[in-house]
Structure prediction request, 572 residues.
Amino acid sequence: MLERIEIHDVALIETAVLHPGDGLLVLTGETGAGKSILIDAIGALTGNKTNRDMIRFGQDRATIEAVFTNYTIALPTNLLDELGLSPDDDPDTEELLLSREILASGKTICRINGRVVPLGLLRDVASYLIDIHGQHDQQAIFKTETHLHLLDRYGAQPLADALTAWQEIYVDYQTCRRKLQTLGTDPAERARRVDILEYQIREIEAAGIYAGEDEKLLLRRRVLANTEKIKSALAEALETLSGENETVILNGLSRTSSRLDIVAAHLPDLAETADQVRESLYNLQSATGDIRAALDDLEIMPGELEKLDERIDQLTMLKRKYGGTLTSVLQFQQIAREELAELEDSEALFNNLTKQKDQLGRQLIDQGHHLSRCRQEAAAGLERHITRELHDLGMKDVRFAVCFAPVQDNPDLAGRYGLDQVEFLISANPGEPMKPLVRIASGGEASRIMLAIKSILAEADRIPVLIFDEIDAGVSGHTAEKVADKLMRLSRTRQIFCITHLAQIAAMADQHILIEKTVRSDQTRTRLHPLDHAGQRREIARLLAGSSGEKEAEILASKLLDQAATSKSNLI
Prediction:
């Protein structure tokens, strides 16, 4: 159950707090008062796309929050586990808080119970709690591709289990097909592929490469190219440190160290200084040895530079053919070996995969027929339920049918959702043939059909909150009374939000919110004002007459409220 909605700084709404109770919550107001803002705000909470234009002028962010109780009935176990919740939580005390913050940068922050979560997780959770039927949603029933999805939703768990079993086989079948396509169906083509792989593997093996070899060779080449400069510098350094001259560094430092040792014996304060000089002497002696060794190693073998260039060119060619680095070349070699191992036994592998594909294909067709039978059983129930709902909504002579295209027993033509192609058909008047639903012209008929479908799916989905944004489009007169009664009856088991312009629906409200636009200090605001009984009567009169204060309209509004009260009491 939705306990509370808070909206802050969304478009013209500065702050709005709703405490929807049980039953039917009706929202009315003048055109342009901001009813769509409320729906957009709730839609953002369900994962709909947002943008910075939703933020109220002068603010840097907008926030929407909703608190739910008794949510464990609606959420599946996998989502409860992901959220760290338990289906055994006390529904009367445990709350689920969904929130979304829209920043001026265009980014959004989604939270569930205060924990930041990805938008996808917020959308998944909200999809089990809130279903919004917007002004343009009824166009969905005019798209044939949505009909199969609607039928599957109606079929509930039994149909979902059959579809899951189908998809498991379907994935295995497609994997097998891809492996066969990789092998190819032409033995000559497989033989050519074997030749190519063997050549590539031999070429890499013959090179005898190792990771990092190219970098090591390039460093050696730089040394060879500057050998004379390096030799000269090393020889000069060696001469300075340990040459024949008496003034060289090591000789002078050795004499200094000896003198300081004598002094330190008489002046203990200089003992540390003597140690530092002695350590410096040892370090320089070690450095001298390293320099002498480096100088000895600079001997160049005849032709070494040319051989080095040849090897670098060879490695460059391999990298260009098999990857940008020697590591990539070695990885290519390993992958090629694995593919070659498969292809060397390709005939047996091809035969095994072909048998596996044929077996999976038969299983897929069998499961596809089972799935189709489940759908046909569900379709019979859906036809009865929608026809009954439409009769209740004033379409007494309507006929509704779910049409199945002939099943093609070809697994290669199958899709992720089975072998079936489904389309809804309808005949709205006596004597008219069944026609595709997409050819309905009447907006009122489309609204009623969508309401019927939503009502039925609500029972199948157990979604606790249904929001109807102007479901009454194209509806008037006696049909409006039927729609109002249907919404009231539906609200006995769900929380229903309904934005409407129809007085008949407004009269059925258990809670009535007036959405008003006000201007104060040159700033426009949209506010939500809960109406008491008198306020509800005045608002219904406005809906009837187009303005407030007309006595006849208020008399009729009172009659509508009395009739609504009687309908509710009779339902109890």
Remarks:
- The first helix runs from residue 35 to 45.
- Residues 1-129+466-572 form a domain with the Rossmann fold fold (CATH 3.40.50.300).
- The mean pLDDT is 84.
